[in-house]
Amino acid sequence: IGTALDIERCDLNIKGNHSNHHTDLFGQECLVVRRGQPFSIVLHLSSSSKEFKVGKTNFVFDVETGPLPRRESDTKVTFSPQASDTEWSASAATDASGRTVTVSISSSPKAPIGIYTLTLDQLGQKTSLGQFTLLFNAWCPDDAVYMKSEEKRKEYVLAQHGLIYRGSHKRIKGKPWNFGQFEPGILDICLKILDNNPKFVSDADKDVSSRRDPIYVTRALSAMINSNDDRGVLVGEWAEFSDGTHPGLWMGSGEILRQWAESGPVHYGQCWVFAAVACTVFRALGIPCRVVTNFGSAHDTNANLVIERFFDENGDRISRDDSICENFHVWVDSWMTRPDLGSKFDGWQTSDPTPQETSDGVFCCGPASLCAIKEGEVGLKYDTPFIFAEVNADVEDLVQLSTGQFVTFSESTKSVGHFISTKAVGANERHDITHQYKYPEGSKEEREVYERAQNRNMLLKRREKPGLYLKIKLAENMIVGSSFEVYALLTNNCMDTRNCKLIFYARAVSYNGKIGDLCGFSSDNLEVPSGEERRLSLKLEYQRYEPAITSDLLIQVSAITIDKETVDFQKAEKTIVLDEPDIGIKVRTCSLSCRVGSVGANEAAKASIEFKPTVAGSSVLLVNFDSDKLKNIKNFTDVVVEK
Ligand SMILES: [Ca+2]
Ligand SMILES: [Ca+2]
Ligand SMILES: [Ca+2]
Q: Which ligand neighbours the alpha carbon of 439 most closely?
């Protein structure tokens, strides 16, 4: 005991820390700090304790979060004023008496958010110093949610009241909403929502560790705000509300979240309620967030970026799969970097907690980068095609004729996505952010982006990974004796244009795989833009392959492409089995003719044979053709021998 400090009490300095960490609105019950920024605690030593000496007294801190703290998962971290091999650190100072020690603790700007315990370890003698909640930090330049402007941080992290735009595009109304992220108990409920997500339930270690990443947290929340698939916060309902609260009656998120914590999923929510509750949770956890309303929002059920509406000849809708919301749809944008996509896609990310379509089998949507949506980069994670369609799908109305055939009777490129609105920073005004989602309707860029999105989406639907794809396409009629063309198809499923050399050749091959002579060659340098396909043909001429092939009638075609810049190499190979030509047999009464003799390419020969049938009745006349190149080609015909 003589060697250890005897801690009488630890003062977590909540008031001072909260003021520095913009967490004072949480009250002073518990310590809440933001990551990547130092907070201080004061250790009061007992009168009998050994004196603290800066640089000499040896002590170590342990911080732990989640049910299974592990160093490997960064959910358990050890550091000391003397040494730290993590991004956590501590420094200590003492007053003249040596009886109070002020320790400044710096958390990693990449640490998982959540509730931590803090323990002092003096050569194995452990003293619990208390617990603190660690949040994302929009004030810390090293944090993925860093936001430069103090005005914006005040609006998107600290503002507890907001306006949610509803109505129709002709009458847009901002309705007040009480987000209440700092109300007592709400932060703990927000953390409890994360602890109810199925990923935590199935692998708590991995889930808690992943809470360092705002992308992960955003996706988890977009699933957990709705009660589909899990014990999420709100049950969606659009028709019958008698056994719950009508979505239009809610005034704020606090009531909903408290009701959820007490008795599970809350009846009922609609899009703006889902979005508003999501915004509360994001702001509570420290991720800047705004509620966004889109007027004329589309719901594209089959992700083809076209809203297809089918009518019968009387003008009645016959399928309600795709739809355009007559009024509005509401979701949230949250602010973060996208190291998974590249810095161009940093900034606002849309996620939509209203249960509409499943993504990876779960009702959740996003986060999708606003930049990716605006530029039509719908191949980028997560659910970008769906959100792109919400703001900028084309519309096609089709009528089904009595023949069953569908005919397009009207098309529009401008009906979807208008007056995309959020509350202005620091003012109770509508801020139109349509330009952050799309180029103006009617502009050249808007069409270019739509085309790009269609292109990317096509690749996505083929479920191919990014890369170059090489395929060989054979001809329909590859008959020995004829000349025909085969094709090499090169598809570029990368984000950039590729310049490739493509070599395409054919060799004779025998059935046991022995390669023979070259019988066709072609090559070209191809520039393949992203998402497009180029083809190279190879003509296989009879005069050229005839001397090379064996009686197995096999030709092997090979295509090789090399992208010299990236050293991307692809090869495709196919073996052609040449078809035998049809031998025509014509029977005239009892005489017959067949083709025989020396036959050149594309030539016909004729021979006649006379014989007397010995049996009357139905019979089969069989012909066997044999030559030096074509062996044993058989054909037959039915004959009836009359008496
Ligand atoms: Ca859910
Ligand atoms: Ca569609
Ligand atoms: Ca459009």
A: 3
Q: What is the pLDDT of residues 300-357, one digit of tens each?
A: 988 889 999 888 888 888 877 788 876 799 999 999 999 999 999 999 999 999 999 8
What is the number of the ligand closest to the CA of 416?
3
Ligand 1 centroid, distance to 382 Cα (angstroms): 16
Q: Which residues are annotated as a binding site for Ca(2+)?
A: 392, 394, 441, 446
pTM: 0.74
Please state, in angstroms and rounded to a whole number, the distance separating the CA atoms of residues 596 and 259: 92
Q: Which fold has domain 7-135?
A: Immunoglobulin-like (2.60.40)
**Residues by chain with Cβ below 5 Å of ion ligand 2:** 300, 302, 304, 306, 322
Catalytic annotation present for 352: yes
Across 493-590, the runs of DSSP E, i.e. the strands, are 498-509, 515-528, 533-540, 554-563, 568-577, 586-588
Q: Under a CB-based contact definition with an 8 Å cutoff, are residues 420 and 430 in contact?
A: no
pLDDT in tens, 472-504: 888 877 888 889 999 999 988 777 788 999 999
- Measuring CA to CA, which residue among 339, 333, 340 is closest to residue 370? 333
Q: Which CATH superfamily is domain 150-461 in?
A: Transglutaminase-like (3.90.260.10)
CATH among 3.40.50.1000, 2.60.40.10, 3.40.630.30, 3.40.50.300 for 468-577: 2.60.40.10
> What is the Å distance from ligand 2's center to 179 Cα?
34
